[in-house]
């Protein structure tokens, strides 16, 4: 009887332990605790370079809202306990989220591999990234302790340090591509200009005007009503003389304030800046040889006459005008092409057990 009690007690203990383990495993694969492994676990490799589970989880977090918005907009799907695993016309949120997260991880790894291939980065593994983060934060803490200048945040978290690392490594790769482009001479750049000038290097349009201006501010930089009325009367006289055929130069000499700029060019493509300037808005409406009414802008009155107008997209910008921009566009294009090709041709090996077990 005593032996049976011991066996019964052990049996109950085993059942309790088994039940606890079952609960722990279930919890580990649901909610926010899908995975609690060590830093060496990987969910995939890209050309042999590991994508650690933490990197995948970060991509999941960054894409979660976009996927939710997609299903809300495309399928009118509301949040529920079964949202992530429900099929909406064949599309399952959790599967779309995992695919997008893994695709982003592969592209990120391609960017890091590009930098490593050029010797810009040495260790692109996640554990290496964490060591670098720790070292950088230690360096900053010591610098602050020693009252040295520290640029940027006092301490990086993983997201901000990754952005810092990517920004600097990408810049270094592009500098390498720029040096190669310059070594090859301008032929490649001129060819790039010719191939893309229809889309990128058309003029944004501009208007050149002659301008008569005079301030209406007092010594305290406030509008003086009496001075405003006086200048307005003078400008009405100037306007009448111009309409009667007097030369702009003669009228400007008589009515413009000394030292004011008599010619102004307005970039029609700079919509944000033009929206803040009554002079720019008035100039944009003028035809060649047309004059404006009297305009108040920035504490002065102005009278404009259009002498040149080029409509947006009506002509190409000359290569010499935009060659710095052409070089920048060429380098950016080369970089994106390399990353796209590396991503497309990458040997991606997925750890299906971890990938398939992921749940929200």
What characteristics describe this protein?
elongated; 2 domains; 57% helix; three-stranded antiparallel beta sheet; alpha+beta; four-stranded antiparallel beta sheet
Element layout with pairings:
Blueprint lengths: L1 H27 L13 E5 L2 E4 H23 L17 H25 L8 H20 L12 H26 L3 H14 L5 E10 L9 H19 L4 H8 L7 E5 L3 H5 L2 H7 L10 E3 L2 E11 L8 H27 L2 E3 L1 H6 L3
Antiparallel strand pairs: 1-2, 1-7, 3-4, 3-6, 5-6
Helix pairs in contact: 2-3, 3-5, 3-11, 5-11, 6-11, 7-8
Would you kindly provide a written description of the structure presented here, covering whatever features stand out?
The chain is an alpha+beta fold. It folds into two domains: 39-183 and 349-357, no CATH class; 206-310, Chitinase A, domain 3 (Roll), CATH 3.10.50. Helices cover 57% and strands 11% of the residues. Strands 4-3-6-5 form a four-stranded antiparallel beta sheet. A hairpin with a 2-residue loop joins strand 5 (295-297) and strand 6 (300-310). The longest helix is centred in the first third of the chain and has 27 residues, at 2-28. The radius of gyration is 34 Å and the shape is elongated.
* Spatial ordering of strands, largest sheet: 4-3-6-5
| Number of structural units classed as domains | 2
Inertia-based shape: elongated
Q: Return the string of H and E elements.
A: HEEHHHHHEHHEHHEEHEH
Report the portion of residues in β strands.
5-15%
> What integer is the average pLDDT?
88
Catalytic activity: [protein]-peptidylproline (omega=180) = [protein]-peptidylproline (omega=0)
Organism: Paenibacillus tyrfis
Keywords: Isomerase, Rotamase, Signal
EC number: 5.2.1.8
């Amino acid at each position: 009887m005593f032996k049976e009690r011991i066996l019964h007690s052990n049996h109950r203990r085993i059942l309790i332990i088994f039940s606890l383990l079952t609960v722990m495993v279930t919890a580990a694969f649901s909610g926010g605790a899908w995975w609690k492994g060590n830093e060496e676990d990987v969910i995939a490799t890209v050309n042999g370079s590991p994508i650690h589970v933490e990197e995948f989880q970060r991509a999941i977090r960054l894409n979660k809202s976009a996927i939710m918005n997609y299903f809300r907009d495309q399928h009118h799907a509301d949040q529920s306990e079964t949202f992530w695993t429900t099929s909406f016309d064949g599309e399952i949120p959790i599967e779309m989220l995992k695919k997008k997260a893994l695709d982003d991880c592969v592209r990120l790894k391609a960017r890091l591999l590009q930098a490593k291939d050029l010797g810009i980065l040495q260790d692109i593994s996640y554990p290496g990234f964490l060591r670098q983060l720790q070292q950088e934060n230690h360096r900053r803490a010591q610098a602050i302790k020693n009252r040295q200048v520290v640029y940027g945040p006092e301490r990086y978290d993983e997201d901000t340090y990754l952005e810092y690392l990517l920004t600097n490594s990408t810049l270094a790769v592009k500098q390498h591509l720029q040096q190669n482009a310059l070594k090859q001479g301008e032929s490649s750049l001129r060819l790039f200009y010719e191939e893309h000038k229809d889309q990128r290097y058309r003029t944004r349009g501009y208007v050149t005007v002659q301008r008569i201006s005079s301030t209406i501010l007092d010594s305290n930089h406030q509008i003086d009503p009496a001075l405003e009325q006086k200048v307005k009367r003078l400008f009405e006289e100037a306007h009448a003389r111009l309409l009667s055929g007097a030369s702009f130069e003669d009228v400007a000499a008589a009515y413009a304030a000394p030292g004011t700029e008599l010619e102004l060019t307005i970039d029609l493509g700079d919509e944000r800046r033009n929206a803040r300037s009554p002079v720019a808005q008035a100039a944009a409406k003028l035809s060649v040889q047309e004059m404006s009414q009297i305009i108040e802008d920035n504490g002065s009155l102005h009278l404009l006459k259009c002498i040149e107008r080029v409509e947006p997209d009506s002509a190409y910008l000359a290569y010499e005008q935009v060659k710095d921009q052409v070089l920048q566009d060429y380098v950016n294009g080369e970089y994106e092409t390399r990353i796209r090709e590396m991503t497309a041709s990458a040997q991606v090996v997925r750890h299906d057990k971890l990938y398939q077990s992921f749940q929200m």
